[in-house]
Amino acid sequence: MPIQILPENTELQYVQFGEAFIRFDNPEKLRSIKAQYILTTGKYFESFKYFDHYRTVIKNLLTCSQTIQAKIVESAKNLFRGDGSHKFCVHIRRGDFVNHPIFLPSEERFTISSTDYVLKKLKKNHSNLSVVAIGDGPRWVENLFANKSLYKNLASTKVYIHEMNEDPAVDICFGMMVCDSILLTSSTSTNGWWIAYVITPKPVFYRRKNSPLHMGRYQPRKSGALDYYLKRWIPLDENIVF
Q1: Contact 128, 86 (CB under 8 A)
Q2: Which of 8, 54, 70, 163 pairs with 27 at a CA distance of 20 to 30 A?
Q3: pLDDT of res. 106
Q4: What string of DSSP letters covers 166-208?
Q5: What are the residue ranges spanned by the domains of the chain?
Q6: What is the distance between the alpha carbons of residues 234 and 242, in angstroms, rounded to a whole number?
Q7: CATH class of 65-241
Q8: Cα 213 from Cα 202, distance rounded (Å)
Q9: Taking the CA atoms of the chain, what radius of gyration do you get in angstroms?
Q10: How far apart (Å, rounded) are the C-alpha atoms in residues 93 and 96?
Q11: 3-state secondary structure (DSSP) of residue 130
Q12: How far is it, in rounded angstroms, from Cα 228 to Cα 187?
């Protein structure tokens, strides 16, 4: 579609829309506006409700290229060496989320405790499981799981650490192709969210607390969680996993 410069006398109406973080703003309300052109004020469209009705199309669009798939097959072959276990992925997000005023990074206590908790749940249906740590902070992960023997379910479970690739697309595709289930330990991570979305309906767990500002009793409608996390995904609270 060609770019057009609108004449000075063009009827243009500014509309407050999409201004709230991780909340859905229904586009249907724009239909009642009679202006020839509208300009929305928001920039946050971080809800699956904007596009979930096109999920099949989106999954097809996100199919990894043959080149990337070949890299992942080789990487998985070297990492797992024939291990055919159920791959329970634990997605880690540290980086610039550490000390961020809004986004909560993966934290030590929650990450290892929730991993042990979810393993217990998964073992009810899977006798052969392994943990695959994906995302960033591989050294942080190594130090974290060095004490896995202190946790009942983790103690007897093999832990693999996937080295982060320079190309984010490779890391995302690795998760899409390898994960049989996933835990989002930093639940506002973009990469983690998209991996979880694509592998659904496979089991997805996520940390309900997603911000340092997230205090007091959880209010799903007020926080926007019902717009950001799919209903079938399983939220985890600190009082459950600790």
Answers
A1: yes
A2: 8
A3: 95
A4: SSHHHHHHHHHHH-SEEEESSTT-HHHHHHHHHHTTS-EEEES
A5: 65-241
A6: 16
A7: alpha beta
A8: 30
A9: 21
A10: 9
A11: strand
A12: 10
In the chain, the N- to C-terminal Cα span, in Å, equals: 54
**Contact of 92 with 140, CB cutoff 8 Å:** yes
Extract the tokens encoding 45: 């469209």
Residue 174 CA: distances (Å) to CA of 29, 68, 79, 86: 39, 9, 12, 15
Residues 6+ apart with CB under 8 A from 30: 15, 17, 38, 40
Q: How many CB atoms lie within 10 A of CB 112?
A: 21
- Per-residue pLDDT averaged across 202-207, rounded? 97
The mean pLDDT value for 126-134 works out to 97
Q: What pLDDT digit, counting tens, does each position of 155-196 carry?
A: 999 999 998 777 888 889 999 999 999 999 999 999 999 999
Percent of the chain with pLDDT over 70: 94
Tally Cβ neighbours within 10 Å of residue 28. 7
